[in-house]
Amino acid sequence: MKDFREGIMETAESFYVDIFDKSSAETARRCAEKSKEIAAGFLNALTEAVVEAASRENGGERISSILFSCLHSSIFLHRYLIRIDVMGKNFYRDAPMAVSYWDAGDIYSLFEQDVKEIRLRLSEKFPRLREYEIDQVRYAYAFYYHRLAASFVREMVEGIIESTGKLYDGARAEDLVKILFGEYMGEADILFHIGRKKLYSLTAVRPSVRKSVLCCDGVSQERYFWIHADKKNIQPRFLEWDRMVRPGIRDQRLIYEALDKRSYLKVNLEKEISFMDIISSPIFMVSKEFANIIRMYCPWMRFKYLVLFDERNKRSASYQIPCLPEIDCLDDDSELGGGGNVIRKGILQGNRIGGTCIFRLKGAGGRYVMVDLAFAESAYRREVKGMDIEEFVVR
């Protein structure tokens, strides 16, 4: 017998093709009207990455592959970016030679409208849908739009090539660059090969040209996100919390220190509501599955353990509380509110982060847990429930 979630997903899947057929046709029409603008934006993003990578070829490493990848985080941020990684010969082992992002918002412009239509149709059979259940639909349905984006990338590159001559220009095998499209940190398909000289001519690149990895406004290509519990999902109400932590303590680091290695606490949560993978308050805690993602990136991370008992509904859930490193990297130009405890506009100083993949931001009561793009994508690929993200600017 199918469980409730399987029933929702199976019913939703029956709507996908019909809804997408209509939206993809409309998307194609809209993009055709803006074709020059879209192509210019695409070529600018590609050129930015190739110029930066070409400047490093003087050090001996040569461009071997260019990977266009879709991002799960874009779906939830409603900011639909395609990441462009220019890679050397060690595709999976080394960091990219250069990175840029192409704004593919025109391609994904009808995505949320489609999700609303799917939700409306689902509600006829499942009248009390939860936000995290709709998020599961987003995960699945996004595949159709990612496939559409791949088609646009192929057409744009081929269109540029056709306007400038042959694909290979007699290039030898070792001088060919692979063009790929896929899922960030996942599988990718080879769209075609292009000669390295042809690539330079398309983007007007000379290997001796040097371009900063910073955008013209001084914003870094590094991306960091504040992760927290999605406010649209109901969180458990903690009972007798003050018996575990002295009243008045709000700083997350001090709360962590006050907790025992293993603790047990009663909570109230409506019967039809599931426990989410992330809880932000009164302290940041995560499910075992989410904690395993943290351990994958930070094997040295220490945890404390908290079991939540929903006595009224005779169920329990185990959570882990990471001892996150704290980094003082909030820029003075950030906008604060709530007596300094609320960050309205977050700007981070990239040189202070040092590539840390997950950390607690110093200040604002330690309430802000930051992760890099790779971590956020790993979490979304595992379809964590109840997580929301907000991107901060990195300088």
Please characterize this protein's 3D structure.
With 395 residues, this protein is of the alpha+beta class. The chain is built from 10 helices and 19 strands. The strands form 5 sheets. A 6-stranded mixed beta sheet has the order 13-17-18-6-19-16. Helix 1 packs antiparallel against helix 4 and helix 1 runs parallel beside helix 5.
Kindly estimate the percentage of residues that lie in beta strands according to DSSP: 15-25%
Strand arrangement within the widest β-sheet reads: 13-17-18-6-19-16
- The residue-averaged pLDDT reads 86
Main sheet summary: 6 strands, mixed
Helix content: 25-40%
Straight-line distance between termini:
53 Å
What is the N-to-C succession of helices and strands?
A: HHEHEEHHEEHEEHEEEHEEEEEEHEEHE
What is the subunit organization of this protein? single chain
Spans where pLDDT lies below 50 across 5 or more residues = 206-219
Total helices: the number is 10
Secondary structure: number of strands:
19
| SS content category | alpha+beta
Radius of gyration: 24 Å
List the helices and strands and how they pair.
Layout: H1 4-33, H2 35-55, E1 65-70, H3 72-77, E2 81-87, E3 98-103, H4 111-123, H5 131-162, E4 176-183, E5 188-195, H6 196-202, E6 224-229, E7 237-238, H7 252-258, E8 262-268, E9 278-279, E10 285-286, H8 288-297, E11 303-310, E12 315-322, E13 326-327, E14 335-337, E15 342-345, E16 347-348, H9 350-353, E17 358-361, E18 369-372, H10 373-381, E19 387-394
